[in-house]
Amino acid sequence: MKKRVFVLFCFLIGCFFSLKSQVTNPAQWTFSQKDLGNGEYELVLKAELEPGWTVYSMYTPEGGPMATTVALEQAGKGIELLGKAEENEPHKKYDDIFGVDVWYFSGEVVIRQRVKVTDDALTSVKGTVEYQGCQEGICVMFDQEFDIPLDKGQVKEAKNSAAPENPKDESLWLFFWIAFAGGLAAVVMPCVFPMIPMTVSFFMHGDANKAKAKAKALFFAFSIIAIYTVLGLVISVALGPDFVNWLSTNWLPNLFFFVIFMIFAASFFGAFEIVLPSWLVNKSDRQADKGGYLGAFFMAFTLVLVSFSCTAPIVGTVLVEAARGSVLRPVVGMLGFSLAVALPFGFFAFFPSRLGNLPKSGGWLNSVKVVLGFIEIALGFKFLMVADQTYHWGLLDREVYIAIWGAVFTLQGLYLMGKLKFKNDSDLQYISVPRLAFIIATFAFVIYLIPGMFGAPLKALAGYLPPQETIDFDINRIVRDQAKEIIKRGVTAGNTGTAAVVQADCEPAKYADFLHLPHGIEGYFDYWQALKCAKAQNKPLFIDFTGHGCVNCREMEQSVWSDPRILDMLKNDYVVLALYVDDKKTLPEEEWYVSDYDGKQKKTLGKKNADFQIKHFHSNAQPNYILLDSGAGETGLEKFVLMPARGHDLNRDAFYEFLKKGLEEFKKRNS
After folding, report:
1. What is the mean pLDDT of residues 172-197?
2. pLDDT confidence band for 359 (50 / 70 / 90)
3. Backbone phi, psi, residue 604, to 5°
């Protein structure tokens, strides 16, 4: 808003600068290269971001905002890519709008790509980096061309080329506590829980000096933490950022993880035990018998090995989830997990009199295993869902996925009630109060899932469910289709009015096979089609400059457009035009053109729409809402704008007034 006021002010005082100067660019890029020898180079693309702005990672998961992309003009024509591009450590957070984890940068972006020059005649590497910059209330699409000279034997470094500091991963604390909860679950496993009093008693009675015994017990607890954390460190170093990104986005590891989770679940159900070789356990146990601090360490190691059959599925789950995030997550995950496992041993070593307050071992321990088995099945299907969506197998549509979860948790509720019994279960004589609470929570969750079978959004589970568009039996969509059929029948019967005009004078929308408007709104994705329809219906044009990866656009659609007053006006009083500025569809060659604004050739639908927005409305931000008189044409569109443009603003009343006043202005101009 401030920007538009500034533009108007400059125009009035005669200092209206060139159009390019009005476009917000939050990233200042520098490009350099380093000669690695043998024709290999490391290209370094670095951007300094203005405060408050973010840019999305190259490896943002599918279905999320627009990822940063780097395209080399000579790739395959004298330039060979060596591996995938590497980035500095991104921030990570879960996005409710897209339903996925979003990776983004603030402050600085550094991209490194190794290449091999196969054509000795090349003197430079040319390419383009495309990215989406976002600030509160605004998202901007940009492309930045580069031409990096290849000076063999020399290092061409950009200014300010110190190695970037890794920004803090804001999700690490959350993941730490999730892993900690997993450790608490491991403590009550049948292989771990009975060892608490046995181990603490060993330390308290094996040494006459109680203070020394307590010190050894604490060392034992810290050894557990060290063993698991070192495991996380080894995995972190072994994987590296490239492998982490591959695990997160490729279908093959996701399919592998699905199988692993099913194996874990079968183990929890008692089908088999995941055990380590007996010689390894026996050797560690013999070392523990030597006593002293070395013996305490090996006793901790023995505990880890002996409890492997119970803790392996939980440790595996933590490590799988850790491997799908930043390289620090395996270390943080194992630290949280091991801290929870070690706490009981350290606590009861200091307060051995409290051992009597522990619940007795019994069938409830195996019940914990079985419940975790059901949870493993539910979580495992999330990985199969990723592979299914990537390859469009069509195995897990939304209602199928929800039905599987409903069945899994219904069986879990029946198990807790004692209606199902597994191999290692004891008879359930009565239902305790805590067990009853779990039964109620389980069936409440199942009931919550049921509306999702018929199109309910189930926002609390957005990140774990397939997209809404994959559901076959969507009641909202069925109602909309029936309403359309009624309108068609009315037109056929000879009714006149708006519906008849729509059928007679408005063409079917281009690009409607892959572009859609929310809430059942019928509209267009091409300016000239929408304008023709608006003229025929004598309605104003509502232009929505949007993007597939625009977080703020989705938030406006969900929170503002869904208002019944606003939705009614968009459906009945305006012709809606959505122009996606990041769509990659290649236009027919006869529609390619060179922009008057930047002199670049526009070959895709997104580039064409972005150029249209900048050239006519002096903005490249999304969302951007324009109300246009249907008398507009190809040039001079500013004078046909009915109201000052609006961007990201969740005030429903203000947006309704925007539409209402725009309609009043349209009627006034055309009366």
Report:
1. 73
2. low
3. -115, 160
Are 131 and 142 in contact, with CB atoms under 8 Å apart? yes
Q: Buried (b) or exposed (e) across 9-31, using 16+ Cβ within 10 A?
A: eeeeeeeeeeeeebbeebbebeb
The 10s digit of each residue's pLDDT in 337-356 is 888 888 887 777 666 666 65
Judged on CB neighbours under 10 Å (0-12, 13-18, 19+), 469 is exposed
Strands 138-149 and 124-135: antiparallel
State both tokens at 561: 């457009």
**pLDDT tens for residues 205-220?**
555 566 777 777 778 7
| pLDDT tier at 632, thresholds 50, 70, 90 | confident
What single DSSP character describes residue 168?
P
pLDDT of residue 628: 93
* Residue range 402-416: mean pLDDT, rounded: 93
Please give the Cα distance from 468 to 491 (Å, whole number).
Answer: 31
623 upstream amide cis, omega within 30 of 0? yes
* 298 within 8 A of 287, measured Cβ to Cβ: yes
Q: Is 146 helix (H, G, I), strand (E, B) or coil?
A: strand
Question: In sequence order, what DSSP letters do the residues of 169-200 get, joined into one string?
Answer: -TTHHHHHHHHHHHHHHHHTSTTTTTHHHHHH
End-to-end CA distance of the chain: 30
The C-alpha atoms of residue 255 and residue 242 are separated, in whole angstroms, by: 19
**Looking at this protein, which amino acid is placed at residue 154?**
Q
SS3 for 663?
A: helix
Q: How far is CA 421 from CA 144, 364, 425, 445, in A?
A: 63, 13, 6, 22
- If one counts every other C-beta atom within 10 angstroms of the C-beta of residue 524, the result is 28
Q: Minimal CA–CA distance to 143: which of 19, 29, 22?
A: 29
Can you give the pLDDT at residue 548?
75
**Do residues 70 and 31 make contact, with C-beta atoms less than 8 angstroms apart?**
no
Phi–psi pair at 110, nearest 5 degrees: -130, 120
- The percentage of residues in the chain with a pLDDT greater than 70, rounded to a whole number, is 69
**Tokens 């994987």 belong to which residue?**
239
**What is the residue whose two structure tokens read 């208002």?**
563
DSSP tag of 354:
G
Report the phi/psi class of residue 99: left, alpha or beta, with left for phi > 0 and alpha for psi in -120 to 50: left
Note the pTM of the prediction, 2 decimals.
0.47
pLDDT tens column, 41-56: 889 999 888 877 888 8
Work out the number of other CB atoms within 10 angstroms of the CB of residue 596. 9
The DSSP letter of residue 639 is G
C-alpha distance from residue 240 to each of 234, 255, 386 (Å): 10, 21, 22
**Residue linked to tokens 């088995």:** 373
3-state DSSP assignment of residue 48: strand
More confident residue, 447 or 384: 447
- Banded pLDDT at 283 (limits 50, 70, 90): low
What's the residue count for the chain? 671
Distance CA(604)–CA(583), nearest Å, equals 7
pLDDT in the model for residue 281: 54
CB atoms within 10 A of CB 343: 17
